[in-house]
Write a structure and sequence with these properties.
single chain, 347 residues, Arc Repressor Mutant, subunit A, TTF1-like, Myb_dom, SANT/Myb, chromatin binding
Length: 347
């Protein structure tokens, strides 16, 4: 597909097409462009927004006719094929053979993707399971912490529809505070961390005679920020999302470890960036999983690895053009060749 030509042609039907990803445009060029042109000949405009009852009926008719033609025995198998791993290959073959994409969109002047999502919502038996229990809400928060916005994966784990879990999570998230941390919130976070570390140290010192208070003084620095149960901490703080708790805790730790010095600012900040780029370049690492952030933290100072990872992320985002399309080694090479001389001159 000639991307630019596709964008120009689609723009007539979808004015905001240039805000859509290239991959989606390629799909629309294949699935939608000819349909849109046919609808135009009939004087029918491409529609967006809420589906009408007539459109819902047409989707239902298209699905039912396709099931008969292809010999697939349920709409769930057709639209949620991954739920049936043993029949997956056969169903995919039947969908291709009988041109499912074309048949689904028949008679509906909308982008194929929107018709497909609507059909999934209409025919998902998991979409009408009633209110979420407290246990389900906790599971949803936990799964989102693990898988982010992968609603397809989360929906399968919870036996709820994609739309249902995404909508419910947005409701849960609406209770989250995004403003500055209050003293009460910080205290809740500190109490949660103290309780966690004391519990862990009690477990570690189960066979020793040291008291929990003394054990607090003996915590390995790495245990202060590695493998922490952030969803549990989020639940204890109550008004903050787990990533916020993690960021705030790392900020508090960094402040303690550096005795309040702002590592990212002034001369110290420049030296820290210079040392980080040089050290990364010397390591000759290809795979991000091979980066030893603990070892690298000594280059900048006594800081949590999350601080260093954040500093590297900011460096590449602000300094490396099209960094998303580059490998780790290409990003580091660019920083070394282009950004490092600028920083050294500034220093």
């Amino acid at each position: 597909v000639d991307l630019e030509a596709a964008k120009q042609e689609l723009e007539e039907f979808i004015p905001h097409v240039r805000t859509i990803s290239d991959n989606s445009i390629r799909q629309m060029a294949k699935r939608d462009l000819m349909r849109f042109k046919e609808f135009k000949k009939e004087g029918i405009a491409v529609k967006f927004g809420r589906f009408s009852q007539k459109e819902n009926n047409q989707i239902r008719k298209n699905i039912e006719e396709f099931l008969v033609t292809a010999g697939i025995d349920s709409a769930e198998k057709l639209l949620f094929t991954s739920r049936y791993p043993e029949e997956k290959g056969t169903i995919h073959h039947l969908k291709l053979e009988h041109r499912f994409s074309e048949k689904l969109a028949e008679g509906i002047p909308r982008p194929w993707r929107l018709i497909y999502y609507r059909a999934r919502k209409m025919f998902d038996p998991h979409n009408y399971k009633g209110r979420y229990t407290e246990e389900e809400k906790e599971k949803l928060k936990k799964y989102h912490a693990l898988h982010g916005n992968d609603w397809k994966k989360i929906s399968e784990m919870m036996s709820r529809s994609n739309l249902s879990v995404a909508k419910k999570f947005s409701e849960i998230k609406s209770d989250i505070n995004y403003g500055p941390w209050s003293k009460e919130e910080i205290q809740k976070l500190m109490d949660a961390m103290k309780e966690l570390f004391r519990r862990r140290m009690k477990k570690d010192d189960a066979h020793s005679h040291s008291s929990p208070e003394k054990s607090d003084l003996l915590i390995d620095r790495r245990k202060l920020y590695q493998n922490l149960p952030w969803t549990e901490i989020e639940a204890k703080v109550g008004t903050r999302y787990w990533r916020q708790c993690k960021q705030k805790w790392n900020s508090i730790l960094t402040n303690k470890m550096t005795k309040g010095q702002k590592l990212g600012m002034g001369t110290k900040g420049l030296r820290a960036k210079i040392n980080l780029i040089k050290r990364l370049y010397e390591m000759e690492v290809e795979d991000p999983n091979e980066l030893n952030w603990e070892e690298l933290s000594d280059t900048v100072g006594d800081v949590p690895k999350a601080y260093l990872q954040s500093a590297f992320y900011k460096l590449k985002v602000t300094s490396v053009p099209s960094w998303q399309k580059k490998t780790l080694s290409e990003i580091i090479d660019y920083l070394f060749e282009k950004k490092l001389p600028q920083l050294e001159e500034k220093l």
